[in-house]
Design a protein that fits this description.
mainly alpha; Hypothetical Protein Yqey, Chain: A, domain1; 66% helix
Length: 149
């Protein structure tokens, strides 16, 4: 099932359960998807939908920071609840230890010069959040670099 279909089903379930936060958040996400489809005059795929959801999560995190500066606990709570709803539709983030193992494998297989971007390509659909480079950088130390002919 596509993410867009999951959002539609979640919106219907939220409407039946009178869950205002989930209903409002899923409607907003579906409206953003529909706007992109109208602008591009084509259907969007799951990768584009994930990008839109990540953008919406980023907007809410920025709103949380602004709410903290303005000492608005109501805005902070609303945005945190919306983030939880949106994150339910994104793939689970890869644990740092697993990412480190993938980096070691990529470096061992092809050398450090080719490791850039490889760990993520081993696990399609897996999202990498903040902190992705942290477990990889120690593995790609200058000692592990191979000379490219």
């Amino acid at each position: 099932m596509e993410i867009k279909e999951k959002l539609t089903e979640a919106m219907r379930a939220a409407m039946k359960a009178n869950d205002d936060v989930a209903r409002r958040t899923t409607r907003m996400a579906l409206a953003a998807i529909q706007q992109v489809e109208v602008d591009r005059q084509t259907k969007v795929n799951d990768a584009a939908v994930m990008g839109l959801l990540q953008k919406e999560i980023k907007n809410r995190r920025e709103a949380i920071e602004e709410g903290r500066k303005a000492n608005r606990s109501d805005l902070i709570a609303d945005n945190e609840a919306e983030i939880k709803v949106l994150e339910a539709f994104l793939p689970k983030a890869m644990p740092a230890e697993e990412l480190r193992q993938l980096a070691q494998t990529a470096i061992g297989d092809e050398g450090a010069h080719a490791a850039g971007g490889r760990p993520g390509s081993r696990r399609p659909g897996e999202r990498h959040g903040q902190g992705t480079a942290y477990p990889v950088k120690p593995e790609a130390s200058p000692e592990s670099y191979t000379r490219v002919p």
